[in-house]
Amino acid sequence: MIHHKAAADYFGVIVPKTGGNSMIYDLKPMSWQGGVAGGPSDPGKTGYFALTYSTGAVTGYSANSMIYLRTDGSSHTQFGEMIPALTSASTDKIDLTTAVGAFGASGYKALAYTPDNVDGSGANQFYYLRLDSATGNTVLGRLNPSLVAGTRTISDIANLGGVYSTLAFAADATGASGQTA
Question: What predicted TM-score, i.e. pTM, was given to this entire model?
């Protein structure tokens, strides 16, 4: 999870078995300062708001990494990678505001990763939710970070007709939706 505290963003974990109130651990800031873990976060890298886990099967990304969305100082949405050990600062990979297929799309608020080929969309994809400024509804879309330059990176899939705020992938979903929902 992302934990906002004292104007800094921290990478943390919630332990489900801790009883009525889950313990929240502020592990380390998003970047090291002076080579020491636990120092203040890099003031140039803040605004984190979505986080998902990637197996690393995506070209150009480390194995077992955390992928995030954040808003930078220019109000652009950045898609980037953070290594859980935090041996280096997080790295922005794609500016989603200007990426091919974005067309100025904004309002991103949720991110989920699937290693499976969902409905023919390809394996190792990231799905997002964003608030459509024109309709006020939430849009579900797919982000393919491994495509070469010049090809469509961001693809809106459906206007969900309501306001949604979280997104998760279930590889073993059952019922009418079938598997990989």
Answer: 0.81
